[in-house]
Amino acid sequence: MLLYVIRHGQTDYNREERLQGARDIPLNDTGRGQATGNGLALAKLTSLELPLDEFDWVASPLGRTRETMELVRTAAGLDPLAYRTDPLLVELSFGDWEGQTLVEVEAHSPQLIEQRNKGKWQFRPPGDRAESYAMLAERTDRFLSKLDRPTICVAHGGVIRTLFNRIGKIAGDDAAVIDIPQDRVLRTDGESIGWV
């Protein structure tokens, strides 16, 4: 398995440290620049392994990942729309907390923030659609099991954290707090994983 992964570019929610989860928040100008830079970097990296058109290109269906994918493909000299989406790559849902900062959440739910801090991997925020990282990891497993050729995907910070858990064998609570940059490309061959 050869997989390159890019996190979507910055949004205003990222800049404000708001939990965006499954909300459809667009990229800001910084995020657009990050996406273009990742496309240029990816074109150089993959030329050492396979031509770009031999990869399966897939993104989360949320707007920020699709916009990132289209900017990445444009910068790499490819048709910006020639990719597919997969709902398994949607970001972790923060349920009722989406749109808030953790400081705002702590002001009204300090006991829940305390629970989260004790075990972030298993913690599930309130709300019908909310997920834990453990739940997201099960979706990531399903995505990985479907890969049948070298793939380039644009996903979210939570999805990438689950890759570090599943492929990098990093403990869940440690993986859940890894800083995931928006201006780097991640590479894994199914056994090793790291930023390139």
From TrEMBL:
Which parts form a coiled-coil structure per UniProt? none
Q: Specify the domain of life of the species encoding this protein.
A: Bacteria
InterPro entries (alphabetical): His_Pase_superF_clade-1 (IPR013078), His_PPase_superfam (IPR029033), PG/BPGM_mutase_AS (IPR001345), PGM_Phosphatase (IPR050275)
- CDD domains according to UniProt: HP_PGM_like
**What SUPFAM superfamilies does UniProt report for this protein, alphabetically?**
Phosphoglycerate mutase-like
Pfam families linked to this entry: His_Phos_1
Q: What is this protein called?
A: Histidine phosphatase family protein
The organism is Hoeflea alexandrii
